[in-house]
Amino acid sequence: MPLTILAIDDSSTMRRLVQSTLVQSGYAVEVAEDGVDGLEKLDNVRPDLVITDINMPRLDGFGVIEGVRKHPTFNKIPILTLTTESAAELKQRARTAGASGWIVKPFNKDKLLLAIKRVLG
Amino acid sequence: MSSDPLDEIRVVFFQECAELLEELEDGLYAMRDGTETDDTVNAVFRAVHSIKGGAGAFGLDLLVSVSHQFETVLDKVRSDQLDPTPELLDLFMRCADKLQDLVQAAKDERDADPAICDELVAALKQYDQPAGASAPPQPAAAPAADGDVAFTVAPLDLDFGEDDAEPAADADWLVTFTPHVDLYQRGNDCCHLVSILIDMGATNVGVDASQSPVWDDLPAETPFMVWTLTMPSAISEADIREVFEFVDGDCDLKVEQGETPPAADPAADDMGFVPLKLDIEDATDDDVDFVPTKLAIDVDEAPEESTAPEVDPAVKATAEAVAIAPKPESKKKSAPAKQDAKSEASSTIRVDLNRVDRLINLIGELVINQSMLAQGFQSLSTPVSQQLSDGLNDLRQLTRDIQDSVMAIRAQPIKPLFRRMSRIVRETGESTGKNVQLVTEGEATEIDKTIIERLSDPLTHMIRNAVDHGLETPDTRTENGKEELGTVRLTAVHRSGRVVIEVADDGAGINRKKVREIAIEKGLVAADAELTDSEIDNLLFMPGFSTAKEVSNLSGRGVGMDVVKRSIQNLGGRVSLESEPGKRSVFTISLPLTLAVMDGMIVRIDDQLMVVSLSEIIETIRPTSTSIQHLTPSQSVILVRGEYVPIIDVGYELGFRPRVKDTSEAVVLLSETESGDRSALLVDGILDQRQVVIKGLEDNYGDVPGVAAVTILGDGNIALILDVDGLLRLSETSRLSTAA
Q1: Residues 74..103 of A with a Cβ closer than 8 Å to B: which?
Q2: Most CB atoms closer than 10 Å: which of A26, A58, B108, B340?
Q3: Residue from B104, B6, B52, B50 nearest A12 by CA
Q4: In this predicted complex, what is the ipTM?
């Protein structure tokens, strides 16, 4: 079974980019459009990893981290945030909220896979 | 579809950008109008943020640099560090414009002009300054920054010893890694980090479990192990530390240079390091249980794989199968959630315009086919059964419904266009010193996408005119007992199968006396011509007419209302003007709903059927024996209410037949030409008036003078659609050559 990743981003471009890159690398990828959508999908997708954007309508990335960490089953799965270079303080905030790590946008394939390797092996 | 997934994503990116830019504009307008909600600024921020994110992925540096600075200042507004003053909002709007330009340039794969970007970025940076002094300085517009650098070098790509920035020391690195409980709380796992170091070439891996309590007392989520690894000296300390970037603060990490055997480290002695492999066999039962199996496997196997996750061929095959399969499923799943989302756009699907156009084309064929069928049955000698004729009627109705529905796919609300006008009004008002508001009605009115695009220029011009020439200055308005604030009203409404757009201002109206004087002065009308009010008003549409005393830098621009009229006519539209002196002027544009179908008049010329667009025809006249006068053999005129209008014999000009001598059976179509002059098109008869489906000729025949396109009539006959402008040019050429 390939490892399953749930990618949450309100930008369809980003969703496609993440999905296409990770699927090529042998992961199963499901996407969600915002935090609410993402948390709703947790039980169905049963991800091994959540990658989430920070700035999203309805529920932002911090909300996602909080929701995952409170989830009875998936509270220990790694969470990577997608952040921009200008947001060093966001990284810290996400970490405090319980994120495992971060991926800096814009990312390339190597960057993405390296960050995932650190948390998924 | 494209084979490169990136190309496909690029398409998605540009579609998304269009939506985001619209959202951005809507948000900025709401902020300006004070109608924003709590989420408006966030939505604006997100829009710019998402554009930047995508732009970064595609290496669109200019777009990244403008959106980055834009986003930075927006963030200050969002966090209440900065007030959205009118000046700032104005700058935001200009930035939004620029983003739009940059996106368009990127889409067209053109180079954008960096100068304006620099100017905007500089202007934005000024707002960034005051708060920037207290906050850590933001990185410049460049997409790469500190956080980035740490990521760029994949450890496994390292060319050992060569481009290692630090001088390689002789002694190996001794890495001591003591995880804290938080490391697991945040979903990290020591084993993965250790395996990365093993992949990087760790020569020795040890784990000390001596601190852990006995099994029964062991809290499941608290790590007690201390890992030690020996890394080759060729790897830099920074690269080793980088692996632990995510767990910085969640562990104790020591990276020291020392002798290879861990025992050489005095601290190691205290901790009682044991080589891992031996440990597995020799350790006590308690210890064995704690050694993560995954690590043991990784150590046993040669660390040969690169950054890609280990995937055996079988798994990979499944992964690919899965990769294709979940797509429709995930779309289906997300659909209901989409409807929950506030954004209206999310309940839409994206379809390539070419596909819609192909469908429209096919429906055109269907319409033609249906009417051929109907005509075929009509000409049958035997009577048709009731059932068959009912069926035919249903078919006709269905075809018409399908046609309307498909046309509706291309239809878009006129709102974005109106929004753009609101900016024009503001800018024109500011530069002319007039106090003016734009009121829009019927923003949801839908009209063909292409028409909307091509309406932008003429409408912009009309709006500028309304503010610049229509409205009085605030002083004059006050003197005349009017409210100081002038109003330009932009209305769109569906009326009998067309869209009617009105541009109304509550200004001074048309000064008919002055218009008449100018027209006479410029030789546009005879000094003694008797003109109705409406005719005087419509003189504005004549070329070379400009009532402004001096050409203002706004509505001037070398374009007159004649060009406006022409562009609207080219869309199959009509424009007219109504005015009430001292009170208002109203320009009314009437447009077809689509460009694929037009209202046409079917005329007969010799034995040919031709179609003339109804929008080109002002009136039809059956000439009397006295109304036509032949000036020369090649030049005749017809008298229309006291005005002589040159006759153009369509059949002759297109080479169907010689000139008509006997005009008693002919019909004249009065048309207004590009130059504002009227001309009379002589045809042999009018057969019908109906909607025709336009089929291009260019693909097969190139540009045929005098013929705009063709259509297929119900009986299967092909009829040429007349290009009136082209025909006039043709006639001019032939007249000149005859004269010579």
Answers
A1: 76-79, 82-86, 88, 91, 95, 98-102
A2: A26
A3: B50
A4: 0.84
